[in-house]
Amino acid sequence: MGSHANFQNEIYLNGLGDVRPELPTDLTKLEKLAERRLPAGAFGYVAGSAGAEATAAANRAAFDRWRIVPRMLRDTSRRDLSVRVLGTAMPAPLVVGPIGVLSILHPDAEPGVARAAAELGVPMVLSSVSSVTMEEAAEASGEGSPRWFQLYWSKNRDVAASFLERAKAAGYTALVVTLDTHAMGWRPRDLDTAYLPFLRGIGVANYFTDPAFQKAVGGPITDANRDAAILQWVADFGDPTLTWDDLPFLREHWDGPIALKGILHPDDARRAVDAGMDGVIVSNHGGRQVDGAMAALDALPGVVEAVGERAEVLFDSGIRTGADIVKALALGARAVLVARPYAYGLGLAGQAGVRHVLRCLLAELELTMMLSGFTGPQELTPEILAPAP
Ligand SMILES: Cc1cc2nc3c(=O)[nH]c(=O)nc-3n(C[C@H](O)[C@H](O)[C@H](O)COP(=O)(O)O)c2cc1C
Ligand SMILES: O=C(O)C(=O)c1ccccc1
């Protein structure tokens, strides 16, 4: 892709190709479709949030409280949506966010997402709890395609260090450390259906193949010690003892850019920057962790102000359309991560469905910017928004 974006032409001139009849271009419709077509357990796991799902609803409502104010008679014939984030050049300020256990949705799973992202030059963040190993996902992503690794910081420090070493060797260039999920949130949909893919050994590929994890279990994982290995995974998955004093561990084991995911308070953002982190990701995990937590978009301006130019601020939780991306960028995000929409695309149409979702987002982003009078992400500032009456 050249520096001059033309995502919208691509869609209008070439059509939507192989997934045209199946998948809507209004990506807010994907969830309903997924509910009809996917197995109930897998759908509930993806769509579900914590508690009464009030925070998940608040994430969306926050976007609706902002409206774009389009400007006329500006030359928007030449557009460049490209940005550099955490050391990675990308065609637009869009990143494929980390989602674990994707094989519950479609056999294409993480490799399918990696291939779809690579085709478009969009970076993918691979989850620690991927259903294939990080090496297999890297292979699918391919030589030269941008990829980042998301760390769930294991209680077993040897496992955490080993993950970072493997991720580096497999060509992941930036590290996303998720802080808001040292335990799984209270998720009634999964609890009521007893849907826990990990207990059936899905999403543990990185652990079961890891030498440090195997050492803790007493050897390679076999049918004989599989249940014990799963219990070991449950015991070590997250570490609630972690504090800011532990951050140097990350620097000791990772020399590339690091972003902390799950930041909502400006003071936490400041501490991240003071600790030498390169970025923060404003996120409430899509409302899946603390029900009643503030909407992620409402947290964004305060974090942006606290961080200033000292680090990069990324955003997720609630991104569904190109207009949503414009609003998050206007409120100070350098890039956004898309999550549930591509999971629905994967579940509905595999790799082609993911490609559909990413193309639609890119095209709608570009068209929204162009028709609002903007030619690049740097022009998107708070002044381009008005509060909804
Ligand atoms: C099914 C599912 C699995 C997820 N797994 C991970 C994960 O492994 N690591 C992580 O950092 N975030 C994970 N997330 C959180 C997403 O990265 C992201 O923060 C969140 O989904 C954003 O909200 P949205 O999907 O409503 O936009 C997961 C989210 C979903 C829906
Ligand atoms: O479900 C999630 O949101 C998530 O982040 C997760 C946590 C542990 C294992 C798999 C996914």
Could you characterize what this model shows?
This protein has 389 residues and is α/β, with parallel strands linked by helices. It has one domain: Aldolase class I (TIM Barrel, Alpha-Beta Barrel). Helices cover 42% and strands 12% of the residues. The chain is built from 16 helices and 12 strands. Strands 4-11-10-9-8-7-6-5 form an 8-stranded parallel β-sheet. β9, α14 and β10 form a beta-alpha-beta unit. Bound molecules: flavin mononucleotide and benzoyl-formic acid. Flavin mononucleotide binds next to α3 and α16.
Layout of helices and strands:
Blueprint (H helix, E strand, L loop, with lengths): L6 H8 L15 H8 L2 H8 L6 H11 L1 E3 L14 E3 L2 E3 L3 E3 L12 H12 L3 E3 L7 H8 L5 E5 L5 H13 L4 E5 L9 H6 L11 H4 L2 H7 L8 H11 L11 H6 L4 E6 L2 H9 L4 E4 L13 H12 L4 E4 L6 H9 L4 E4 L1 H32 L13 E3 L2
Helix pairs in contact: 1-16, 2-16, 5-6, 5-16, 10-11, 13-14, 15-16
The site of flavin mononucleotide has 21 residues, from helix 3 and helix 16.
In short:
The protein has 389 residues and is of the alpha/beta class. The chain contains 16 helices and 12 strands.
